[in-house]
UniProtKB/TrEMBL annotation:
Domain of life of the native organism: Bacteria
An example molecular function term from Gene Ontology annotations: hydrolase activity
Name of the protein this chain belongs to: Fumarylacetoacetate hydrolase
SUPFAM superfamilies linked: FAH
Keyword terms of this UniProt record: Hydrolase, Metal-binding
InterPro entries: Fumarylacetoacetase-like_C, Fumarylacetoacetase_C_sf
Any matching Pfam family: FAA_hydrolase
Length: 230
């Protein structure tokens, strides 16, 4: 087929221990999936079902690295998350079947323009740009589930300039990976190449120009990001 413009390049994340890469189709995110984080954001986690938002695939920064500090914010926040990468798709998938879709796992940062998000919420507007801005999604190499299984517990944390800011355990998720995938699959057909960011523990806080972030997820991997001074 002839295109009127060049097709976009495939966004891909390295696979640990393999020369192949994982092509990213879509990035789905679970909102407020840790009770303590829900409370620090002013919500009652016992009263709401999971909800989802999306980031564009080209927001992914494979492997992290040095990034420019976003010009449009004075309140950039880190949110450390386990990421599930889907090798298979499906619609109306049960929680018992959902993990069969997962190719592997990574650790990622859902970077958020908190001031942009707050202003959009106040005005009753969508807050897509607060989550989906360029380079808002640094993600570590993906580790196949065939190698590590499906992590349901383990320390997940992020340090800024060597100081731990967020620290939690995967077993603190309100909705497990399988439950979140099953719920999402009732709204959209999940597809190979989709990523699911599974929520963040408490302790989100501001990042400044010049800061260095080091995120880890026990048994999964690590991600390092630094922000250039303005």
């Amino acid at each position: 087929m002839r295109y009127v413009i060049d097709p976009p390049a495939v966004v891909a994340i390295p696979v640990g221990g393999d020369s192949a890469a994982f092509p990213v189709r879509r990035v789905w995110c679970v909102g407020r999936n840790y009770a303590a984080h829900a409370r620090e954001m002013g919500h009652d986690p016992d009263r709401e079902p999971p909800f989802f938002f999306a980031k564009p695939a080209n927001a992914v920064v494979a492997g992290g690295g040095e990034l420019p500090f976003p010009d449009q914010t004075d309140d950039l926040h880190h949110e450390i998350e386990l990421v599930a990468a889907l090798g298979r798709g499906g619609a109306n998938v049960s929680a018992a079947e959902a993990l069969n879709l997962v190719y592997g796992y990574a650790v990622g940062l859902d970077m958020t323009l908190r001031d942009v998000q707050a202003e959009a919420k106040k005005l009753g507007r969508p807050w897509d740009l607060a989550k989906g801005f360029d380079r808002s999604c640094p993600i570590s190499p993906i580790v196949p589930a065939a190698r590590i299984g499906h992590p349901a517990e383990g320390r997940i944390e992020v340090a800024v300039n060597g100081e731990v800011r967020q620290s939690g355990d995967l077993n603190q998720m309100i909705w497990s990976v399988a439950e979140a995938l099953a719920c999402l699959s009732r709204a959209v057909e999940l597809l190979p190449g989709d990523l699911l960011m599974t929520g963040t523990p408490a302790g989100v806080s501001a990042v400044r120009p010049g800061d260095v972030l080091h995120g880890t997820c026990e048994g999964v991997g690590e991600i390092r990001v630094s922000y250039r001074a303005r």
